[in-house]
Amino acid sequence: MRKLKNEELNRKSVKDFRVSKKMPLIIVLDNVRSLNNIGSVFRTADAFLIERIYLCGITASPPHKDIHKTALGATENVLWEHVNSTADIVQKLQTEGVSVWPIEQTEDSTSLDLFQPEPNKSYAFVLGNEVRGVSQEVIDICNKALEIPQFGTKHSLNISVATGLVIWDFFIKTKP
Amino acid sequence: MRKLKNEELNRKSVKDFRVSKKMPLIIVLDNVRSLNNIGSVFRTADAFLIERIYLCGITASPPHKDIHKTALGATENVLWEHVNSTADIVQKLQTEGVSVWPIEQTEDSTSLDLFQPEPNKSYAFVLGNEVRGVSQEVIDICNKALEIPQFGTKHSLNISVATGLVIWDFFIKTKP
User: What residues in B contact A36, CB-CB < 8 Å?
Assistant: First the structure.
């Protein structure tokens, strides 16, 4: 099985990316601290044609060399916006008809394996700070909570891994 | 939706983890350079009860403070072994009946969304170096190649994100 060369991968140009139909999924980063994690989320968002990323509160914005190290240029393509308040953007998205779910361990959460996106509906997933997770204030105004089931000794996944996992799950559940 | 406290998450003790039934999945890291990535893979492997991790070639081993930063103690639970040659461990696993697949972009690869693990079969997924990917020499002796379909401008995902995504995919396709 010969490994493909980069030029054989048929990746999109930046111009083609901009006009491509996106997945109906927005990622909201609620006060994420690690620049590596932010960059890595951009790279995954590029790969799966995510609609937009909201960088909230202390979440750093491009351009930044440590975001670039893991994003590898994906910040040039994926639409993003920095906002101060995560709660404000959650409410704005909801008024636009977007269903907003924190990825978090809560009472009455839906386990990711049982989650089924409604057809023709837009979703936003909120991923939280590395230590504190998504803030309770934000969770309180979200539609529902989505929980990644976990069976080991630790309390949570790395935030860029968790983002990759929910994006892939959304992709396979909504692909034509 | 009240956020759960750590003590409400019913995570396993190290003792319970060790005797828990594992997923029939082994992760092989082929010359992975980043200590962050290695630690992050350990954390995901803990969450989904991965059988074992092989750290090959230049892939660093615990204990190491930069692995610990992202593994957060998962290296104490998940079984792991360092081996010099990735090819040697691939061949050893194959003689034990394990089906070994690089996660890589190759000719005749199987797209991850179409992959269906056979029941009662053990698998090993090989993830490669951040720049060079899985070496061609290793790919040549693997059973098949598994490719994560990607639709953006970049050539690959971050390696800890790719690992999380294939582990989640394996989990939902094999859960009882």
Answer: 36
Across the interface, do A48 and B150 touch by the CB < 8 Å criterion?
A: yes
Of A1, A145, A160, the CB nearest to B145: A1
Give this prediction's pTM.
0.96
Residue A149 CB-density burial (10 A; 0-12 exposed, 13-18 middle, 19+ buried): middle
Q: Is B54 helix (H, G, I), strand (E, B) or coil?
A: strand
Inspect the interface and report whether the beta carbons of B164 and A157 lie closer than 8 Å. Answer: yes
Q: In a 3-state reduction of DSSP, which class is residue A3?
A: strand
How far apart CA A162 and CA B162 sit, in angstroms, is 11
* Contact across the interface for B74 and A154, Cβ inside 8 Å: yes
Does the B20-174 domain belong in CATH 1.10.1740.10?
Answer: no
Beta bridge partners of A30: A56, A128
Do the Cβ atoms of A46 and A78 come closer than 8 Å?
Answer: yes
**For residue A74, what is the DSSP state?**
G
Domain A21-174 belongs to what topology? Alpha/beta knot (3.40.1280)
B4, A106: Cβ pair inside 8 Å? yes
Instruction: Assign A14 to helix, strand or coil.
Output: helix
Q: At what angle do helices A35-47 and B159-174 cross, to 10 degrees?
A: 60
pLDDT in tens, chain B (176 residues): 899 988 888 889 988 898 999 999 999 999 999 999 999 999 999 999 999 999 999 999 999 999 998 888 888 899 999 999 999 999 999 999 999 999 999 999 999 999 999 999 999 999 999 999 999 999 999 989 999 999 999 888 999 999 999 999 999 999 98
Chain B residues 91-110 with a CB less than 8 Å from chain A: 104-109
Contact predicate A102/A126, CB 8 Å? yes
Partners of residue B171 in chain A, C-beta under 8 Å: 113
Chain B: closest CA distance from residue A176 (Å): 12
